[in-house]
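REQUEST FORM: STRUCTURE PREDICTION
Request ID: SP-0412
Submitted by: Lab K.M.
Chain count: 1
Length (residues): 252
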Amino acid sequence: MFQPEAPLVERRQVARDLFVLAFAAPEVAAAALPGQFVNLLLRPGPLLRRPFSVHRATEGRVEILLRAVGAGTAGLLALRPGDCVSLLGPLGAGFRLDAAWGSIALLSGGLGVAPFPLAAQAARAAGLEVTWVHGARTAADLCSEWEGDRVVWATDDGSRGFAGSAVDAVPEVGAILACGPNPMLAAVARRWPEAQVAVETYMGCGTGVCLGCAVPKAAGGYDRACSEGPVYRAGDIDWPALPDHLHYRLTA
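STATUS: Completed
RESULT:
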């Protein structure tokens, strides 16, 4: 779905340098599934659209999570209520949920928290017990918002919750969904190859045409993150072959 004028309706800060932006986009919000993304274009601004996971999709609003690290995201954070972006989505293949799992862990590192509020809502609606495991460098970097039945915090410096990697803080559950830095997702793949991981890369079109978002597969060849992904079985990705420019969340 394409909405050429999606107005900003809310902006809030959820961590030291993480912000949530909400845009009015009723049709996109109604169709969005956990793990899917939207492509935003800021006018005037950078030439290419920028992909962001759907953070939440309720009451006709689509939320995204971002960190200002470049001109594009800085421009988005400079928007005022009523200012509009061009919005394309929802795009991509999202998470698969199965009530037979009984329980699920949502494992997020840093900005990888982006797709999980929507995933948590869908998982609970499917009857799954949801544990959110969220890790960051320090307590100030942890996202202040979470959804599910319980949350497990992890910090590299031990300033809140588990001291160390969020991967090591995951409890015994029926299934795992993960999103975060590539080293974290590679660790997930080694430990739980059946886990589902959300991977995003630089995208031009977001619809599978430009081939700019190739993801190397363990079985050989490449997928397009924007169409076959961004959610994959963790063991299906050739993690050592990922290029340096492949980021877990586009923020520039």
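NOTES: The mean pLDDT is 90.
Reviewed by: T.R.
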